[in-house]
Design a protein that fits this description.
about 325 residues, mainly alpha, 2 domains
Length: about 325
């Protein structure tokens, strides 16, 4: 049943993904007509839409799609990429089904040698990698730009109008943060705070979710996310917590990291964009936003920590030493240790 359903859905899913690419021969004829360097100003200035008198959001969007149809096509590609992101688990499932069916067939000659890898399963597994989803959909967007905008405006936009500094910085800082020396240093620093609560899973959970996101104000939010996620995988998710508890922890991590970079004016990219023009410094950030974020993180973590006492019983705590509370005031803060 599953195989028959997979055999029907797999071609449909892959066909939809590469539907735009099938129009490349037709695009090639039109690209030559829009190759003049000064044919199109892309992207058009907002003032060129002349929609200042429109008040409704839908009216503005419809007007701009009518003035520049490429806006509609680009929006559809973006929505397709978002839908693809939420369907990545389906691609992984289909890849596993095809791989198992291919493995079950084996070698027809009975030689006993392992069957060659199933190419369809590998393609579906690649399409199921959430990290490459938007990179995949950039390909049809690029050819659509060539078709609708023109070769030279497209190249000018990609080479001169788009800044690649921030994505390169994020990739570099996340790669460096995932190295063993950085992780070991972060783990040793957080262990000092986890020991205040006995060094158990609960103490590690609180230490990572409270102090880890705050590192975003010092070493950037991507680095704080990488370090906190890897330490949670080692100190918390390795204990096999209940699914609801595991997802709630992940949500807390995302929320805390998203606001943990506002204690300084130089680490978080959104803050960095406005700190210079508005004259914000670190003291201004901490006085107006930082202390509020610290209180919010502490309240969110402690609130869920106190309400999830039963979830710790679902963790396989045999993989880590049991909590041993010290007879100090910290035992009040770390009751689940």
């Amino acid at each position: 049943m599953i195989m028959r359903r997979c055999s029907k859905t797999v071609p449909a899913a892959t066909g939809i993904l590469f539907l735009l690419l099938s129009a490349l021969p037709a695009m090639a004829a039109d690209i030559a007509l829009t190759n003049a360097p000064d044919a199109i100003q892309f992207p058009p200035p907002l003032a060129s839409y002349h929609d200042a008198d429109l008040t409704g959001v839908w009216d503005v969007l419809a007007h701009r799609a009518q003035q520049e149809p490429f806006n509609l096509w680009a929006t559809l590609i973006f929505l397709a990429a978002v839908m693809h992101t939420f369907l990545t688990h389906k691609f992984i499932h289909w890849a596993n089904v095809l791989a198992e069916r291919h493995k079950a067939k084996g070698q027809p000659d009975g030689s006993g040698e392992p069957a060659p890898a199933c190419m369809s399963a590998r393609v579906l597994h690649f399409l199921g990698e959430v990290e490459v989803v938007f990179g995949i959909w950039v390909v049809p967007l690029f050819f659509l730009m060539l078709w609708k905008v023109g070769r030279q405006p497209t190249l000018d936009y990609l080479n001169h109008r788009v800044s690649y500094s921030e994505p390169l910085f994020v990739v570099t800082i996340m790669a460096i943060s995932a190295t063993k020396p950085i992780l070991r240093l972060a783990e040793q620093c957080l262990r000092l705070f986890a020991r205040l609560g006995g060094g158990g899973p609960g103490a590690w959970w609180l230490a990572i979710l409270t102090l880890g996101p705050v590192l975003g104000s010092l070493i950037s939010e991507p680095a704080a996310m990488t370090i906190s996620a890897l330490l949670l995988a080692r100190q918390f998710y390795a204990l096999k917590p209940p699914p609801r508890f595991a997802y709630a922890t992940l949500g807390l991590l995302f929320t805390n990291v998203s606001v943990g970079g506002v204690l300084t004016h130089y680490a978080a990219p959104p803050v960095l964009m406005v700190a210079g023009p508005w004259g914000w410094n670190t003291w201004f950030m901490f006085r107006h936003f930082g202390w509020i974020v610290l209180v919010g993180i502490a309240l969110a973590n402690s609130g869920y920590y106190w309400s999830s006492g039963g979830n710790w019983r679902g963790c396989n705590q045999t993989r880590l030493p049991p909590p041993q509370f010290r007879r100090t005031g910290t035992a009040v803060l770390f009751p689940c240790g």
